[in-house]
Amino acid sequence: MKTAPFKGLLHADMLLHTVILFLVEFVRGAVQISFLSLYGTRHLGLDLDVIGAAITASFLTDAIVKLAIGYLLDRFAVRTVVSASILLCAAGILLIGFADVPWLFITAAALFGFGLSPIWIVCLTRIREESRGVQMGFLYTIWLAGMGTGPVVVNLVLDVSLSAAFWTLAIVALAGWLLSLLLAGGREIHIDRVPFLRQISILGARLREMKILLPGMVLQTLGAGMLLPILPTFASKNLGMTSTHYSVLLTLGGVFTVIGLIPMGKLSDHFGKKWFLVTGFLLFGIVLNLLTFQPSYGLALIWAILLGLSYAAVLPAWNALLAAYVPPGQQGLGWGVFSTVEGLGAMVGPYVGGVLATSLGEAWVVGLAGLLFVLISLFYVFFPFRTFRGE
User: Fold this and answer.
1) Cβ distance 310 to 376 under 8 Å?
2) Domain endpoint, select from 142, 157, 183
3) Cα 136 to Cα 4, 75, 123, 140, distances in angstroms
4) Which of 89, 189, 321, 387 has its CA 20 to 30 A from that of 75?
5) Measured in whole angstroms, how far is the alpha carbon of residue 203 from the centre of its chain?
């Protein structure tokens, strides 16, 4: 009986979906975390404000697709929606290779953003209720594996050749598109659609009820978004790292995040969420500022470990805090509202970070992001956790 959920994961249809999901997330992580910044500055000679605007454009078009996905999947075959979206993603990457003027580079990134979400949403619709927990865990593992592997592999290739990195991403995207043509052609998925104006009305009502969480949510994603367009160039210019060194840094931080998640989650359940949020954000902010002092590579690796552990401390406590504010029976709507608000900071952050880096330098943006995380830590010192169920 225990093996039944795993059998549900391994049927051919689900395997094909998850392979495509891995390829798309590989491309997403590589492009948004590393490739846009390094290829745009080194090969195309673009400024960081253009890089930031391009990342923001990709987030924006991704959000538009999420709003329209119910309509699309209700009217078109899954294969049509997924293959068309991934083809736009591949077209965006191919266009990036020749987009040496700002408006074309931003347009290419926007095209790329259209292809990111449909396969993830389709995978969610394939989950079976009798094995929801196992299958969700499996999908998140694929998602994290793709997002983590993409920037690491592409950074290693970047040290060999910018062109090789470009063609690696183009080939992976096209491989995802070719596989998507093998998906079933039926229109068996139905997603309940809510009219756009009704979505806005519901969103406003839920935001008024959850307003106490908004400052922390927006600042968190704003600070993280500011770092996206500048971290690769910060690592090379200010820390003297090659793309390979930067890959090791990312890998180390990610590994210690994964290692720390379960024990930190258990500890926060036992001791309470507040001080894990306060300490995690404070440590994150301090370490970011320490990186601006141009540490040696060995010391930078230690800071990467601390960043990973601080993120591991924050993530379980933050998700538990959000869950406490989601009303029973409104899980989808509540989490949708949170995703929308967090997405606002993620969309604005890259452009703000790119503009500031162009005028003030990458180190200044890293320091400012660190200050934002320190302020978030102080926010949770005074946050009324008495309203948090179970705290």
Assistant:
1) no
2) 183
3) 15, 26, 10, 6
4) 89
5) 22
Tally of CB atoms within 10 A around 249:
24
Domain range enclosing 270 = 194-391
CA 261/CA 268 separation, integer angstroms: 10
Residue 268 CA: distances (Å) to CA of 101, 283, 383: 49, 16, 16
Select the more confidently predicted residue: 212 or 209: 212
Chain segment 356-365, per-residue pLDDT in tens: 999 899 999 9
Residues 6+ apart with CB under 8 A from 237: 362
Model confidence at 268, pLDDT cuts 50, 70, 90, reads confident
Could you tell me the CA-to-CA distances from 187 to 73, 78, 98, 183, 332 in Å, in that order? 7, 6, 37, 11, 23
CA distances to 112, 136, 197, 288, 297 from 183, rounded to whole Å, are 21, 20, 33, 44, 46
Specify the amino acid at residue 272.
G
Measuring CA to CA, which residue among 295, 274, 287 is closest to residue 382? 274
Structural domains counted in the chain: 2
What mean pLDDT comes out for the span 140-158?
Answer: 85
